[in-house]
Amino acid sequence: MALEQDIGALIVSTNQLTAVVDNKAQALDKQMAALDARVAKKEQEVDKFLQEALPETRYVQDIFIGGSKDYLYPVWWTFPSNSHGVGQITISREYHWNGGVGERPLNTSSVHQAALLLELEGNACQWSGDANFMNIKRFSERYTNTASHVHFMMQCKAEKVDPNRDLYGGGADGSVGPWSYISSGLYLRGGGLKYRITKNWKGDVNYFDGSSIERKSIYEYNVANATSTVRWFVEPIPFTERKAPIANTIPYVNHPYTPPTTA
Questions:
Q1: What is the pLDDT of residue 146?
Q2: DSSP labels for the chain?
Q3: What phi-psi label fits residue 225: left (phi over 0), alpha (psi between -120 and 50 degrees) or beta?
Q4: Residue 21 phi/psi, 5° resolution?
Q5: Pick from 218, 211, 176: which is nearest to 190 by CA?
Q6: Range in 174-178, 230-234, 256-260 the model is least confident about
Q7: Residue 64's pLDDT is what?
Q8: With 70 as the cut, is the pLDDT of residue 10 above it?
Q9: Which of 193, 196, 210 is closest to 104 using CA atoms?
Q10: Tell me: the pLDDT tens digits for 76-132?
């Protein structure tokens, strides 16, 4: 009888201990759940802070333009569309770049070669159905001139691809004056100068590095059922024909072309 009582008491004690352990476990689970919720909330707050605090991603591309200092060489790109928003691009160079002994393409007696800061913003291209604009936000040059022919529609040349079709988008003589319908751009002074391109969208800009005198094709429009066919291309421009940018927030500044209205 005594043994049975002892076993019964042990069972009761075990059940009580189990209940205590279960209660403790439940309490711990609740505490862990509350802690997990607090951690998750903190993670969300940190993510939001980082999104608001970190600057927009910048994509940097350094280019080197050789050739002759007596010529301006083309640099061109296409701004992102409305899905991205406003495209921002800065073309710049430090005044002392290429100013080391044995370099100095513009002034052999000084480290001060050329300083440039040209800040642009824009959207899409003339053939796009989006916003289609470019503004010159800021422009500064020191020591010598380096930037020219800044246009929403890249100033270029045009030629027929098919002689039996009409020329689309430019003068029949192919002289400087036609505009690219898919590219924006400018011309930069050559001779052995480094420039930096900083953008807020992915993708490199195209440029003529001055290593040859061959022209560079920008785009060819030659659809099978099209009534016209044309190839747009660029080539160096003499420095004596430089057109200085004008810092202004008016779209198409320096540009005589008026975009057509659409229905």
A1: 96
A2: -HHHHHHHHHHHHHHHHHHHHHHHHHHHHHHHHHHHHHHHHHHHHHHHHHHHHSPPP-EEEEEEE-S-TTEEEEEEE----TTT--EEEEEEE-TTTT-STT--SS-TT-S---EEEEEEEEES-TTSSS--EEEEEEEEEESS--EEEEESS-B-EEEESSTTSB--SS-TT--S--B-SS-EEEEEE-SSEEEEEEESSSSPPEE--SS-S--EEEEEE--TT-SB-EEEEE--EEGGG------BSSTTTT----PPP--
A3: alpha
A4: -60, -45
A5: 211
A6: 256-260
A7: 96
A8: no
A9: 193
A10: 999 999 999 999 999 999 999 999 988 999 999 999 999 999 999 999 998 888 998
Instruction: Using a cut of 0.85, tell me whether the model's pTM lies above it.
Output: no
Q: Show the tokens assigned to 220.
A: 């060819």
